[in-house]
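Table S2 (text version). Query chain:
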Amino acid sequence: MAGTESVCSHCDPHEIVRCGGAAGETGSRMNGVVWRVGDKGDRERLESFTCCPADHLPRRPCDRPWAHEVQTYFRRDAIKSSNRYRLSHDQRLLLVMDGPVLVGAAVHALTDADDPAGLRERSLVAYAVALDYHGKSLSDGCRASTAVLDAVVTDIASRHGEEQVVFLHALVAPANEASRTCLRRYGLPPHGKDNSGQYVLHSARIC
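Corresponding structure-token output:
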């Protein structure tokens, strides 16, 4: 889960993470892979969204509490949270589909440190890839985790003017090596622990 962090002093304001698709309410790729903004009509789809390995091993305790936390968030809270903070923080729930299958989801929002007259700052509140697509590619050949982050970056770009500088921040549990590797590979490097000391802050300029 990500929180609200101010821009990291180690981030290069001139280095920009690539943007993976066309801006707008709906981004499309190839061969039926699309992303779109989620809403209350997706409640049933999200209630069955699985990204925690323990769901397939019900008799074993979950050794990845962060995965269980994110799964619970998308199943129970993502829609109502995004509706609640839609106006105050421009919070957005995004769904990535490969044909009829939900392969990933993400939520991003403005942070409390966002400055409409200066640096714009966004938090990756949560993101996840469906368990069956962990480490796999979609029908268009793109890695599933990359497609989810492409959707986030593309949607954020559509929310700000071309002249604005936008940073994206994500807080990740230190033991969550899969997400940390994914973010580093995408271009959001780590910048040490957050103020609480509990999470690693990944951050980069994306626009």
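Notes on Table S2: Strands lie at 26-28, 33-37, 92-98, 101-110, 120-129, 166-172, 190-193, 200-205. The CA atoms of residues 189 and 202 lie 5 Å apart.
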